[in-house]
Amino acid sequence: MDKLLRGDSLVWSLLGGVAQPLLEGGRLEALEARSLAQAQQREASYRDTVLRAFSEVEEALQQEQQLLRFVTALEVSVTESDLAEVLAAEQYRSGLVEYITLLEAQRRAFDARSTFIQGRNQQLQNRIDLYLALGGDFLSDQDATFTTRSIK
Q: Which of 33-42, 49-58, 104-113 has the lowest average pLDDT?
């Protein structure tokens, strides 16, 4: 009996060997639960990223339609203001209007062209945003090769 109570006894070794998996089981379950929680967190993050990407694409497509109508209207405005400028110039040469009328027509034509350029710029910026939202990249492998060769 005295041998049983000593720390180097075979009984204690066996008892320790049997108890260790029982104690280890709680730690393994905790590690499994933590891993599962991390996987669920990554899944939720991925889902948010995908939904944000779809939202960005949808927004860019809607803006494209609006900008298309806007730029088309601006194009008509530029054409009409250019025609008004030509008419004002002809009327000024004929002596029918004062010079201020010609200057005003030129200013309106300039403003219309400037607004058209801004609208086109918005349209192009939106297309870049759409391209990036769809996962596009600015340089493909072929473009990178061409750029590298052209620099040398």
A: 49-58
Which tokens belong to 93? 């040469």
Q: Is 109 exposed, middle or buried (0-12, 13-18, 19+ CB in 10 A)?
A: buried
Check pLDDT > 80 for residue 96.
yes
Tell me: pLDDT of 146 over 60.
no
- Rounded distance between C-alpha atoms, residue 14 and residue 111, angstroms: 93
For residue 73, name the pLDDT band (cuts at 50, 70, 90).
very high
Distance between CA atoms of 146 and 135, rounded to whole angstroms?
A: 22
CA 63 from centre of chain: 14
Tokens 């300039």 correspond to: 110
Domains and CATH numbers, the chain: 10-151 (1.20.1600.10)
Check residue 135 and give left, alpha or beta (phi > 0: left; psi -120 to 50: alpha): left
Residue given tokens 């990223």 in the structure block: 49
Which residues lie closer than 8 Å to 129 by C-beta, 6 or more apart? 56, 60
Cα gap 100→115, rounded to integer Å: 22
